Amino acid sequence: MRFVQFNRVVHRWGSIIVSVPVLVVILSGLLLLLKKEFSWIQPASQRGGSKELVLGFDQVLEIAKTIPEAGIESWEDIDRLDVRPSKGMLKVRTNNRWEIQIDTQSGEVLQVAYRRSDLIESFHDGSFFHDKVRLWVFLPSAVVLLGLWLTGFYLFILYLYLGRRGRHSRAQ
């Protein structure tokens, strides 16, 4: 089999093999590109009254416990704190994907919203399904996709070269 034929076969079968994982990556990637545009995906950051951080960690936990949707009973229920001094607020991100935005000076709850961007990101990298799926399906799919890009680029350059050569020989 000639290299060009082999290249086409690899390109054809490779695209079929990676079609589902690549579709998941493309669709989730599109949503992630729009996460700042739609608060349904990721809640917009609010602004607090002051850039000074007055609250202590114990106060933050007590404030967060008052939000029923978040279901916080202890620090074990909190995934992370995201402090934004320039906006005068901090975000409490829970393990169940709720986000509480708190004014860093007054302790006022500025916003409570469900955060979908982390879930979408876990689809995007394959970790939603399982770490083994991420490593044994999504990673090989990325490698095959790179191969498809390379073989497609090669076929495109070959087409340009042969097309130019064919036009040149017809002109003489």
Task: Summarize, please.
With 172 residues, this protein is α+β, with helices and mostly antiparallel strands. Helix content is 52%, strand content 15%.
Order of strands across the widest beta sheet?
A: 1-2-3-4
The largest sheet, given as strand count, sense and whether it forms a barrel, is: 4 strands, antiparallel
Measured distance between first and last alpha carbons? 32 Å
Q: What structural class is derived from the secondary structure elements?
A: alpha+beta
List the helices and strands and how they pair.
Blueprint: H1 3-17, H2 19-33, H3 57-65, E1 78-84, E2 89-94, E3 98-103, E4 109-114, H4 117-125, H5 131-171
Helix pairs in contact: 1-5, 2-4
Structure characterization notes:
The structure is a single chain. Strand 3 (98-103) and strand 4 form a beta hairpin. The chain has a 4-stranded antiparallel sheet with strand order 1-2-3-4, with helices on one face. It folds into 2 domains: 1-40 and 120-172; 43-115, Roll (Nuclear Transport Factor 2, Chain: A), CATH 3.10.450. With 172 residues, the protein is of the alpha+beta class. The protein has 5 helices and 4 strands; from the N terminus they run αααββββαα.
